[in-house]
Amino acid sequence: MQKLSVEDIIAKIKNLEYFEVVASDYSFTLKIENYVPYACAAIHNGHQFRKELWDNCLHTAYERWYEEDPETKTMVQSHPIVIAGCDSRFEYDLNRAPEDAVFETAWGKDLWKSPLPEAMKTKSLQKHQNFYKVVHALIETIEEKFGFCTVYDMHSYNWKRWDREVPTWNLGTTQIDNDRFGKVVELWRQSLSEIQLPNDLNSIAKINDTFYGKGYFLKFITQNFKNTLVLATEISKVYCNEHERVIFPEVVAAVENELKTRIPEHAAYVYEVFKS
What we know:
single chain, globular
């Protein structure tokens, strides 16, 4: 894996090169093994939290991990195009607009012992900005090459905090054109519901049951590109014990193995329907 600047990463994308990189500030990774009409993203996969913020932070490493989406990159790592965040969303949240990306409070609790200096915020927001420069270049290139792109936007959520039964998989669709894409969204929901998981886990899949797809990543792509469908796909944290911080690797591996075939099959169908 190379370490490259944002400018060099974008140049490689524009030249249709195959590569695997980490950004020069270690804020995100991008792998392109082949140019295909779909991409996978795991923007909340990261847990890095830069040291100069530690002493001022009121949240523990576990509290940060609890709200992150661990292993979501692993679940899609076998696909040809994968972009993933390395930093914790507690430093800056890639699924929030720039003006809201650096939290003052997080999940009902003050985040900082004293207000974060502007210089600290600026350093974090620069990483947010760089990520979206690369996202724009990536989606623009895929659309130009193929005419249509599907993005599988992978997240996870803490199911134990809900006081009702919640699905294994949730698709958030409120910010996409459901008149145009409703049929292929339903096909993706159906495919997820058929996934076989170990440990007698169910694979119930619903649309807009727990989350509604209101994140900035989906919004940014949808507003900038008319021929890209972003599928905000949440898995409940059945793949770990969210209260003990224990990952269940057999469940993560099962999800990854199922998505190896289900994502490209679905993406191929979507492409046939919507390619220009």
